[in-house]
Design brief:
The complex is a heterodimer. Chain A is α+β, with helices and mostly antiparallel strands. Chain A is built from three helices and three strands; from the N terminus they run H-E-E-H-E-H. Chain A has a domain of about 55 residues: Roll (Ubiquitin-like (UB roll)), CATH 3.10.20. In chain A, about 20% of the residues lie in helices and about 20% in strands. In chain A, strands 2-1-3 form a three-stranded antiparallel beta sheet, with helices on one face. Chain A is elongated and about 100 Å long. By secondary structure, chain B is mostly helical. Chain B has a single domain, classed as Up-down Bundle (Ferritin). A two-stranded antiparallel sheet of chain B has the order 1-2. In chain B, helix 4 packs antiparallel against helix 7 and helix 6 packs parallel to helix 8. Classes of the chains: A alpha+beta, B mainly alpha. The interface between A and B is large, with 47 and 54 residues.
Chain lengths: ~120, ~325
């Protein structure tokens, strides 16, 4: 069977594929956050499989840090991330209405002009 | 590389209909309106079971293709002509394996485990792009793969990156960015032979002649005999028809082959000036299905090598295993 053009393959004793993997055999899943430059924020870039955080960091360097500027990486076990369900995103729905939490919610110029007109004699 | 347009489907339509009927009409309408409005679907969102099934099938086959696709090229790392070409080829093959990982992650967000995907690949239940069942006989084959197969794959992947499933689109964004280097290096190596000695040109022409049929197969059967894809188009799982992608590819790349004085082994290949579409001899679709079903020159070897790697890597995985970290699906 083994007439491979690949010298590395030709050296192997190959059988028909018959291995069956068990669930969990390919380790756990870690999320990767990448920091492009010193001082920049870390941004989520994806996930990978690793047995523990130390190896996850090494794999992350290969998988998510092999091109362009990269200063640092974080890894965290996916199971440790707590998040809202997407369908609960309505808890943020009235954020936009709370303009008292935003600089744009405060306007005084009209009031000043009105006051100045009423008072008459305030010098600039 | 490497999402071919053709996605092999298991012939189990009966089961599919039953599942499909359990879907909730109101939710389905909401889901379809969301896609229609250009929104992405995320892992936690409600989705029809048929959408989930089709996406897993698509992404999983794409991931398998990246991993298996690294084998014919990896063959040539030890014999790449010169230090620069060797570095380039190692970088490219590493990218392909990385793409496989990114895609398996995207498929895992839909609920199928990595181990189950590898098992289905090894047992032949799921497929990979048919082109990788052919051997890379000479260095010229590597340049044809790197140039033309990657070009074809990019057309498919750019189309898919506008699809509806968020995690798949995000993976493809990164993949397409890296593929642009693959295409450029492939073109450079291809031109290197085309502008070389008469012997190099002969070698390249021979490789083109052998690869043309698999390349014409790459996007899958013509729309007239291709399985019903209307729903998949509406759900933005399939983004372009096989014939449209094939025509796009021919239009962009046949001139780039002809300008080097090389030929393609199809006397009927030409662009119709009136319709603007390319015409070609009908590829041998019986051969295509025969190879997909396992009778290609390299099917057995590809799976045997993949299986060997899983088997011989097992003790390493076990030695490093830590039970402290719980298993979970990727978050996005």
């Amino acid at each position: 069977m083994n007439n491979s053009y690949d010298p590395r393959v030709k050296r192997l004793t190959l059988k028909d594929a018959n291995i069956s993997l068990r669930e969990g055999e390919h380790w756990n899943i870690f999320e990767v956050f990448r920091q492009d430059k010193r001082g920049a924020r870390h941004v989520h870039v994806g996930a990978l499989h690793a047995p523990d955080p130390v190896l996850a960091l090494i794999f992350a360097k290969e998988q998510y840090g092999r091109r362009k500027d990269c200063f640092n990486l974080w890894v965290v076990c996916s199971a440790d991330i707590l998040a809202f369900n997407d369908e609960d995103s309505d808890v943020f729905a009235n954020n936009r209405e709370k303009n008292y939490r935003d600089a744009s919610g405060f306007k005084v110029r009209d009031k000043i002009e009105e006051f100045r007109k009423k008072s008459g004699n305030i010098k600039k | 590389m490497y999402g071919g347009g053709y996605i092999f489907d298991e012939p189990d339509r009966r089961q599919r209909t039953e599942e499909y009927e359990h879907d909730i009409p109101e939710k389905l309408a909401e889901f379809e309106a969301r896609i229609e409005g250009g929104e992405k679907i995320e892992p936690d969102d409600w989705m029809p079971s048929e959408y989930r099934r089709q996406l897993i099938r698509l992404i999983e086959q794409h991931a398998n293709s990246e991993i298996i696709g690294a084998l014919p090229e990896g063959t040539w790392i030890t014999r790449a002509p010169g230090f620069r070409r060797k570095m380039v080829l190692i970088a490219k093959v590493q990218d392909e394996i990385g793409h496989g990982q990114l895609l398996y992650n995207a498929a895992e967000t839909l609920g199928k485990s990595r181990e189950a995907m590898i098992n289905d690949l090894l047992s032949g239940k799921t497929k990979y792009s048919n082109v990788f069942n052919y051997p890379a006989e000479t260095w010229a084959d590597v340049t044809v793969i790197g140039f033309l197969i990657d070009a074809a794959a990019i057309i498919n992947q750019v189309a898919n990156s506008r699809g509806s499933y968020g995690p798949y689109c995000r993976a493809l964004e990164r993949i397409c960015y890296e593929e642009s280097f693959h295409l450029k290096q492939g073109h450079e190596a291809f031109v290197g032979l085309a502008a070389g000695t008469p012997m190099q040109r002969r070698m390249l022409q021979d490789a083109l002649n052998r690869w043309w049929q698999p390349i014409m197969h790459f996007f899958g059967p013509p729309d007239t005999i291709s399985a019903h894809t209307e729903k998949l188009m509406q759900w933005k799982v399939k983004m372009a028809s096989n014939d449209d992608m094939r025509d796009h590819f021919l239009n962009d790349y046949v001139p780039k082959v002809w300008e080097l004085g090389l030929t393609l082994p199809d006397p009927n290949l030409k662009k119709n000036g009136e319709t603007g579409r390319w015409e070609y001899s009908d590829p041998d679709w019986d051969l295509f299905f025969k190879v997909i079903k396992g009778d290609g020159p390299c099917n057995k070897e590809r799976l045997a090598v993949r299986s060997w790697a899983e088997e011989h890597g097992r003790w390493v995985r076990q030695a490093l295993m830590s039970s402290k970290y719980r298993r979970h699906a990727p978050v996005a």
